[in-house]
Amino acid sequence: MSEHENERREMDRLLGPVGEQVSCDRCFELLDEYVELELAGLDADARLPGLRTHLDGCPACREDHESLRALIAADSAGQK
Amino acid sequence: MADSLSSAPVAELGRPTSSNHAKWVHPFMALQVYESELIAIGCIDSETTNPMATQDTLYARRAVDHSFEDREMSAGAQSKAWLAALRGPAAERDAATAKLHGVLLRAARFEVGRRQAALSHVRGEELEDIAMQAANDALMAVLAKLDDFRGASRFTTWAYKFALLEAGVKLRRRAWQDREVVLEPDNWTAFADGGVTAHEELEQAALLSSLRDAIEEELTPHQRRVFVALALNEVPIDVLAERLGSTRGALYKTLHDARGKLRRALAEYGLAQSDTTEKELMR
Question: What SS3 state is found at B139?
Fold first, then answer.
């Protein structure tokens, strides 16, 4: 990746995602449903609009999402 | 298998039979690990954890334990079983609460495990304490919010997120415990180093200069502090919330508003993707 691309990515990180997004509180409310839709292969973004954009802009909520997804995936793997 | 504990033959489920005897663990032994912790935080009643508890109480606990582990039950039926037990008579409720604490502790330990590499300077004993405290706090939150469970996911998925949140917040704060939170811009060089063409260098200089100007001119002092800490200096939002006596939600709203102002200012010079309408966070 060129330095120019790095800089553009850094600017995107600073300015956050473009588009409508939910709040942190709303993200937390919907997170369990979102993760189960994702892991079921369903279109979570269409069902719960604004959540993915929030995850792109909020590192803490993104980490919570990654952890929940990993935990449910580990549970499912353990049950097979 | 019955769909809910309320219709399950409790005593029959709880007693050891010829088919399950080898795996049968006395319910009091299985649950007592959590009980002193749960009594201490006021989630279960010391009366129902008395060693003199009746056999019926013990069988009720075993029934709760058994029902939640039945993989033949649908997700909806399992969720109903959890809710029924957590709202049920004292013995059943306490058994379900102890079981739930175990579920939450597992999630908290999972989160600790994921972040252990970044916390290598923290003793294992302290990390276990953090996991236990996260599970305790999550249990209180889940019990207080039972009425908010909409059944949009499995009950355990819904409950897990409370434990992961509590553990994540505690671990981020622990990682930053001895670090200073910088509220002034000191990271400009992070993406302004060499290796670029002359044209790119000019563009980059223009972008940085415009961003600096916009931060100074467009943002309120509070927005500037929050933007600099969270976006520029990458302070975890839960750490900043603790230092400023605020919340994740309130700080993110401030960051969102600040980003909107900066994006609109930079878009005027063609330096950021155009997104000129002011957007409130969705409810």
Answer: helix
The total of structural domains in chain A comes to 1
CATH of domain B188-267: 1.10.10.10
Residue A34 forms part of a structural domain: yes
Q: What is the pTM of this model?
A: 0.79
Domain spans of chain B? 5-175, 188-267
Pick from B111, B165, B203: which is nearest to A28 by CB? B165
Contact list in B for residue A29 (CB cut-off 8 A) is 148
Chain B hits for A28, Cβ within 8 Å: 161, 165
How does pLDDT run across B74-110, given as a tens digit for each residue? 888 899 999 999 999 999 999 999 999 999 999 999 9
Predicted ipTM > 0.90: yes
User: What amino acid is encoded at B127 in this protein?
Assistant: L
Nearest CA distance, B231 vs chain A (angstrom): 5
**Rounded Cα distance, B46 and B29, in Å:** 16
Domain that holds residue A74: 20-79
Alpha carbon of residue A25 to chain centroid:
14
